[in-house]
UniProtKB/TrEMBL annotation:
Its main location: membrane. This is Cellulose synthase (UDP-forming). It is found in: Membrane. The chain crosses the membrane at residues 12-31, 40-59, 71-94, 375-398, 410-428, 484-503, 515-538. It comes from Roseivivax sediminis.
Length: 657
């Protein structure tokens, strides 16, 4: 290691970390996030530091070579870490570029002229409740594009849904079986549409819980000006907090787990021409689907496979990074993990399918790279997260050397690499990468996802499609004991190991040299991550979260006088009035823009007004749905609010909420 003058080895190591920190303070003033050269330089430095770290790990940190448990454990950890690092290097290359297609959509708006293209909007459903489905159906009907047809594809074969669709004036379809799951359901609808006198020009796909914004069709169709474009994908936004946000109390200060992928990774993939379909919130050219013969059914993630299949026959997929739909994130941890395990399983099925990276097909090299990159993500990220918890225990309980390293070298090689990566990713993603919370989001599903990865790769066929449950009663506290158990066991073992190392010389091993300091810091970090993960397994009660928070002027007529007041915290059932106090007996009408006069009565007084219960009729309720979900900007949090997040976490971890 290079030594700086007049300081020792440890001082030299710290100086390198301080140097990276100093550069980090300057970067926001000189880096253009959209400039490929700037991004390239940042990630070239990251790759150089990664390779430097890898060389050091391979050459200087292994336990002595031999037929020993120490060497076997040390080599196993190194192998898993290096494979994971390869996946990271692939992601670094992808993120060197980024593409924003908003100017292209602006320039080509209305390219079709006076005759609007015909669009079929497919809403696939299986077991969702009416409250969930009604939002989506009403939102689809409210789209500004007039030449459209809304179709509800009911794999649950429910008569009440058929009757509701008839009342709403939308087309209802069901089939005799559920073969092919969601892909089969959509293929059945495509076959029926092909029998119509006039077939659609484009097909939009929405999950049963995703509501389109009113400009969804017009904005996506603008990118089809290019005759080679077969599919346009848009990001998914969520009007409720995902389980980790909600259970840790950071829904207003920390983005949902998918924001980094949709806001940054997909835009970078699009710059390489490898953005992929994510199912809902996408629009596909009818001719492309006909050329393909419908959606592929070899994988439970038919969306990603659709992209590959389209590319293999010459159709391109592109990505429009605009908030054009919003939906319901999984509300429970079990549903959250089930969904991600299904994505993992589906990707492994693709890797072993006719669209796999080593199969004979029409895929470009970059498409094959795209699949390999995804395989590396699922195969390494989650197993490595488990290993990071398990391997320090081998040292504390069995004196097995997993890392044989000097502390100055650890700081110099790992510290500088890790800090640079955190700085670069947060600079380019506007502060979305928070180490501990990122680790928690990966660890909480690591066991089932790792199982799905290896199961899917070794046995790709014969797995049922797992539907992500939405809606239901979430009004009580639920402790996910089975999910929590392994983390509680790991936390207990880690604490016992630390205590044994402190109180007993028998466990004060020195065989690993400075490596024991690495394991000590590692274990303390694991204590924090495991503790937060356990807290995240306690599911807190939920209420309707999609509210109109922006104050607006409304008129409340209590039968005595009509007065203008401020309206806040508007939901489909309640609202808060500010500016005049009303007694609990007050009753009248509330006039809201674009909704009309709603009957309302005061349910409680507040310091500066009152909370009222709304009694909307069916038409007014539909107008409220449109106001909440089909208008305005993206819901949720787009980037980390660090001070607010620290406050929210402190409140949650102190159990004061």
């Amino acid at each position: 290691m290079f030594h700086y003058p007049h300081v020792g080895e440890l001082g030299s190591a710290y100086f390198q970390v301080v140097l990276v920190a100093g550069v980090a303070m300057v970067l926001p003033f000189v880096v253009d996030r959209s400039n490929a050269w700037h991004r390239g330089i940042l990630f070239v430095v990251a790759i150089a530091l990664a390779l430097r770290y890898a060389f050091w790990r391979v050459t200087e940190t292994l336990a002595p070579v031999g037929l020993t448990v120490d060497f076997a454990a040390s080599a196993a950890l190194l192998t898993l870490e290096m494979v994971s690092l390869v996946g990271s290097l692939s992601a670094f290359v992808i993120m060197m570029r980024v593409r924003d297609r908003t100017p292209e959509a602006d320039a080509n708006a209305g390219w079709w002229g006076e005759d609007e293209p015909r669009v079929a909007i497919l809403i696939a459903t299986y077991n969702e409740e009416l409250d969930v489905l009604a939002r989506t159906i009403i939102g689809a009907k409210s789209l500004r594009h007039s030449n459209k047809e809304v179709l509800v594809l009911d794999d649950g074969r429910r008569d009440w849904l058929r009757d509701y669709c008839a009342a709403q004036g939308v087309r209802y379809m069901r089939r005799p079986d559920n073969k092919g799951s969601k892909a089969g359901n959509i293929n059945h609808a495509l076959a029926r549409l092909a029998e119509d006198p006039v077939v659609p020009d484009f097909v939009a796909v929405l999950d049963a819980d995703f509501v389109p914004h009113r400009g969804f069709i017009s904005r996506t169709l603008a990118l089809f000006h290019d005759p080679e474009v077969g599919l346009v994908q848009t990001p998914q936004h969520f009007f409720n907090a995902d389980p980790i946000q909600h259970n840790l109390g950071v829904a207003r200060s920390y983005p949902d787990e998918q924001r980094f992928f949709f806001d940054h990774m997909q835009a970078s993939r699009d710059a390489w021409g490898i953005a992929f379909c994510c199912g809902t919130s996408s629009v596909c050219r009818w001719q492309a689907l006909q050329d393909l013969g419908g959606l592929p059914t070899e994988s439970v993630t038919e969306d990603f496979m659709l992209t590959l299949a389209l590319q293999s026959i010459g159709w391109r997929s592109v990505y429009l990074a605009e908030p054009l739909t919003e939906g319901l994130a999984p509300e429970g941890l079990k549903e959250y993990v089930t969904q991600r395990a299904r994505w993992c399983l589906g990707l492994m099925q693709i890797a072993r399918s006719s669209m796999g990276p080593f199969a004979k097909n029409g895929l470009r090299l970059r498409d094959r790279w795209s699949v390999v990159d995804s395989v590396f993500y699922w195969m390494t990220t989650f197993p490595f997260r488990i290993a990071a918890v398990v391997f320090p225990l081998l040292y504390w309980f069995f004196n097995i050397t997993v890392v044989d390293a000097r502390l100055p070298d650890v700081i110099s090689h790992f510290g500088t690499f890790y800090l640079w990566i955190i700085v670069v990713l947060n600079l380019l993603s506007r502060g979305m990468v928070v180490p501990i919370l990122n680790d928690v989001s990966q660890l909480i599903g690591a066991i089932p996802i790792s199982r799905a990865a290896f199961t899917g790769l070794l046995k790709p066929h014969g797995h049922p499609f797992s539907v992500t449950a939405k809606g239901g009663d979430r009004s009580g506290i639920v402790v996910q004991w089975r999910m929590m158990a392994p983390f509680a066991i790991f936390l207990g073992l880690t604490l016992i190991g630390l205590c044994l190392g402190i109180v007993s010389d028998r466990f004060a091993y020195n065989d690993a040299g400075d490596g024991k300091w690495v394991v000590l810091f590692w274990s303390l970090y694991n204590v924090v991550v495991l503790s937060v993960t356990i807290i995240a397994c306690v599911e807190l009660p939920r209420r309707e979260i999609h509210i109109a928070d922006a104050p607006e002027r409304v008129t409340f007529d209590d039968g005595v006088e009509a007065r203008e007041v401020w309206l806040t915290s508007l939901t489909a059932d309640t609202a808060r009035l500010r500016g005049r106090r009303y007694p609990p007996t007050a009753r009248g009408t509330l006039e809201i823009a674009d909704v009309g006069q709603i009957e309302a009565f005061v349910i409680s007084q507040t310091r500066d007004g009152a909370r009222v219960q709304l009694l909307p009729d069916e038409a007014q309720r539909e107008a409220l749905f449109v106001k909440f979900y089909a208008e305005g900007n993206a819901p949720g949090v787009g980037n980390v609010r660090l001070a607010a997040m620290a406050s929210d976490l402190a409140r949650r971890l102190s159990f004061s909420r």
